[in-house]
Q: What sequence folds into this?
């Protein structure tokens, strides 16, 4: 099959590799019909994520058609499914509590050591996202092997396009969980740092949960426009002073809840830096934890901080004093996708949440490397690239189709 | 030096005296190294005991065990992968067993790696069972041997932890998680 493989910084290639096969009884093989490039894939692209190996297949947002099933899979050939990016077994203590992203068993036993060293407990498995999270091949390919297929993938009813449901795999539940973690009460004002896909879904979710006002913060004008479309007020931090603007816009109280959808991920997840704490604090302590610092300072007293943004190591100058003195609550974590999928699928069917607005580019799988470059180089215009293995590539040399 | 008087397991003692005291609780050859790890498995303790009690099952979860031959109700012969493609062998004998709760064993005279081990299955109510494996051993080749084994990731502390994770995966999910994409990759990993 053809697949997008990682080879190093700014070096991803579409190559021919062996087709995946059923290995375990609960596996299924999915023929990919749509797979997106996630903002977090750019950090693999930028070479910031450790424990990557040359030839690793990327991609953790994908859906497709079931073409093969293991003896214990409950899926049927021909079904269309969206696959959660978190690999969860469905039978451990954490899965029983619907804390799917904390699954004990999704990550192979040998791969759990590093997470244990770094975080005290191993992380769950993820598709296509380094060997720290399991070393599983991702879905930017023609086919993918999906472990625990009886508990993860959700079957999509006829009549829904891929574009409407693809984001159930990661960013829609992640935005929703971000808003849920903000414990929004009717009448609240919620501020969201970062208008990438997760931030934009958090804006929509916050309104659905009863927020009266949502204030969206970014510096890409196009992304702020999208937030505005969903009813958010905006702050462009290149034009206005964020803290001062938030105080002025909330009568000096501060937002009741703040959501950091930026995070450190933009500057990575350095295991070597984590091991070398001095390096880490020097590097990670520059300007990247800026959004979470600012969110804590701006939040009203007794307010809530939700942090869907990914942080990997240590941060410097974390305002722990402000956090304590103001009596804030922080909720965070990787998304328990499986927990949110059924209700969010219904929200999509009932047209309560719009997902297709996000897609700026649709490309063939053969153009995947170009998709990474476009997404990386132009984050204002390129809000989401979806790869369609069935889509013929555009003629050579021409700009990819912009739908 | 006084022995630790807290409630923490001996394997976590900071002093060699504390560790030695832990080793003393095991019957069999008294090595000077102690490896121990616990996992909580979401299954009744009787089920876990039954699986483990048949030592022929263990190569499924113990990556470095090539095979186990069960000789009789108490004795078994073990063939285990060692660093650099070598195999080590020993006969083991069960020294204590309590149905559903505990199995202890020791290697007998002539073992390539003299050791004594114990696995306990403790009912944890709604969370299932706390399984604790403890192995006292003489590191082959002393400290250098231990370092080499660690390099090849066949060091008992690492193996115990990984083997218990695989035991948990098999018992909770019916399979052992693997990131292999093809059967060829899977076979290479298992080799």
A:
């Amino acid at each position: 099959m053809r697949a997008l493989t990682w080879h190093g910084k700014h070096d991803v290639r579409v190559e021919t590799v062996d087709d995946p096969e059923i290995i375990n009884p609960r596996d299924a093989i999915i023929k990919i019909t749509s797979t997106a490039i996630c903002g977090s894939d750019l950090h693999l692209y930028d070479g910031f994520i450790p424990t990557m190996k040359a030839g690793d297949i990327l991609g953790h947002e994908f859906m497709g058609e079931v073409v093969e099933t293991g003896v214990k899979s409950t899926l049927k050939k021909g079904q269309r499914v969206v696959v959660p990016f978190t690999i969860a077994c469905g039978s451990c203590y954490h899965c029983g509590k619907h804390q799917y992203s904390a699954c004990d068993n999704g990550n192979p036993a040998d791969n759990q050591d590093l997470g244990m060293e770094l975080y005290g407990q191993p992380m769950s498995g993820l598709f296509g996202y380094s060997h720290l999270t399991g070393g599983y091949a991702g879905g930017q390919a023609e086919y993918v092997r999906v472990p625990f297929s009886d508990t993860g993938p959700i079957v999509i009813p006829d009549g829904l396009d891929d574009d409407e449901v693809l984001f159930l795999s990661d960013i829609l539940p992640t935005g929703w969980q971000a808003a849920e973690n903000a414990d929004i009460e009717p009448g609240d004002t919620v501020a969201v740092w970062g208008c990438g896909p997760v931030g934009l879904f958090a804006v929509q979710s916050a309104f659905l949960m009863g927020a009266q006002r949502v204030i969206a913060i970014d510096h890409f004008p196009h992304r702020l426009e999208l937030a505005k479309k969903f009813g958010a007020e905006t702050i462009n931090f290149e034009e206005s002073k964020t803290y001062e603007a938030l105080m002025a816009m909330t009568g000096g109280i501060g937002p009741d809840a703040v959501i950091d959808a930026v995070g450190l991920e933009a500057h990575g997840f350095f295991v070597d830096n984590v091991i070398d704490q001095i390096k880490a604090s020097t590097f990670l302590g520059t300007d990247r934890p800026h959004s979470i610092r600012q969110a804590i300072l701006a939040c009203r007293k007794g307010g809530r901080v939700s942090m869907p943004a990914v942080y990997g190591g240590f941060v410097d100058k974390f305002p722990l004093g402000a956090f304590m003195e103001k009596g804030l609550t922080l909720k965070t974590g990787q998304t328990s996708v499986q927990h949110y999928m059924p209700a969010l699928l219904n929200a999509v069917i009932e047209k309560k949440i719009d997902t297709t607005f996000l897609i700026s580019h649709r490309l063939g799988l053969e153009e995947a490397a170009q998709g990474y470059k476009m997404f990386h180089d132009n984050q204002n215009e390129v809000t989401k690239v979806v790869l369609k293995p069935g889509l013929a590539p555009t003629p050579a040399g021409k700009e990819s189709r912009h739908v | 030096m006084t022995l630790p008087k807290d409630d923490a397991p001996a394997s976590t003692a900071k002093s060699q005296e504390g560790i030695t005291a832990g080793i003393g609780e095991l019957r069999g050859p008294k090595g000077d190294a102690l490896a121990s790890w616990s996992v909580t498995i979401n299954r009744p303790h009787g089920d876990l005991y039954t699986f483990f009690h048949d030592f022929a099952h263990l190569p499924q979860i113990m990556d470095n065990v090539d095979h186990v031959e069960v000789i009789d109700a108490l004795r078994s012969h073990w063939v285990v992968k060692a660093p650099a493609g070598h195999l080590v062998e020993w006969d083991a004998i069960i020294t204590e067993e309590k149905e559903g709760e505990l199995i202890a064993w020791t290697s007998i005279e002539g073992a390539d790696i003299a050791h004594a081990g114990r696995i306990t299955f403790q009912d944890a109510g709604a969370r299932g069972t706390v399984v604790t494996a403890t192995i006292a051993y003489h590191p082959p080749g002393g400290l250098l041997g231990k370092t080499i084994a660690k390099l090849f990731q066949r060091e008992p502390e690492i193996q115990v932890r990984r083997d218990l994770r695989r035991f948990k995966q098999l018992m909770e999910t019916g399979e052992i998680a693997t990131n292999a994409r093809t059967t060829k990759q899977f076979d290479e990993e298992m080799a």
User: Anything to note?
Assistant: The mean pLDDT of chain B is 90. Residues 62 and 163 of chain B are 5 Å apart (CA to CA). Helices of chain B lie at 16-24, 45-53, 142-151, 156-173, 183-190. The interface with chain A takes residues 40, 42, 63, 127-128, 153, 158, 161-163, 165-166, 168-169, 172-184, 186 of chain B (CB under 8 Å).
